[in-house]
UniProtKB/TrEMBL annotation:
Gene3D superfamilies documented for this protein: 2.40.50.100
Keywords, sorted A to Z: Biotin
Origin organism lineage: Bacteria, Pseudomonadati, Bacteroidota, Flavobacteriia, Flavobacteriales
Top-rank lineage group of the source organism: Bacteria
Organism of origin: Moheibacter stercoris
Protein name in the entry: Biotin carboxyl carrier protein
Length: 160
C-alpha cells in the first residue's frame, strides 16, 4: 500500500493512503476535471497546470486555485538524502576532492565571479585540475595559498 504526502500552498500537509484515495466518491467529468463528494460536501475540481517532474500542480477547487505538491515515501527518502529531481542545490564552498598542491589562485576575496570562471588550479597525481565556479556569486574567503599542500575534503574557497 502506497502512502502520499500532499502539501497545499506550501503550508498544509496531509498524509493519504491508496485506500483513502480509492474510497473517495469521485466521478471524472473530463480529462482534467472531476466531481468529488467528501463528508456530504460537493467539490468540482480541475487540474489547471502540472509539472510532472516536480510533482506539483495548480488545482482549481470550487473556483479557488491551490498549489499542490504530491510526494511518495520514496520522494521523501530521496529528499532526506539531499537529492531532488528538477532542483539544484546552491554550492557555497569548494573543497579539495583529493590531496594535492595549489598551483595558482585566479580569484580574490570580494571578487564577483560568473559560473564557469576559473577559480584555482590544484595539482594532484601529476595532473593539473582546474576548478571552475559552479555558480555566479561573490568570493567570501580563500582558505589556501599558492604552493600550499591540501588534504582531501579540505575547504578551499567559500562563496557569500
Amino acid at each position: 500500500m502506497k502512502n502520499y504526502k500532499v502539501t497545499v500552498k506550501g503550508q498544509s500537509t496531509f498524509d493519504l493512503t491508496e485506500e483513502q484515495i480509492a474510497a473517495m466518491d469521485s466521478i471524472q467529468l473530463q480529462e482534467n476535471q472531476a466531481h468529488i463528494l467528501q463528508d456530504s460536501q460537493a467539490y468540482t475540481t480541475e487540474i489547471l497546470e502540472n509539472n510532472f517532474l516536480n510533482k506539483s500542480y495548480t488545482v482549481k477547487v470550487n473556483n479557488s486555485e491551490y498549489e499542490v505538491e504530491i510526494a511518495t515515501e520514496l520522494d521523501g527518502l530521496i529528499k532526506e538524502l539531499g537529492f531532488e529531481v528538477g532542483a539544484s542545490k546552491q554550492v557555497n564552498a569548494i573543497k579539495a576532492p583529493m590531496p594535492g598542491l595549489i598551483l595558482s589562485i585566479h580569484v580574490e576575496v570580494g571578487q564577483e565571479v560568473q559560473e564557469n570562471d576559473s577559480l584555482l588550479i590544484l595539482e594532484a597525481m601529476k595532473m593539473e585540475n582546474n576548478f571552475n565556479s559552479p555558480r555566479a556569486g561573490k568570493i567570501k574567503s580563500i582558505l589556501v595559498e599558492k604552493g600550499q599542500a591540501v588534504d582531501k575534503g579540505q575547504l578551499l574557497i567559500e562563496f557569500e
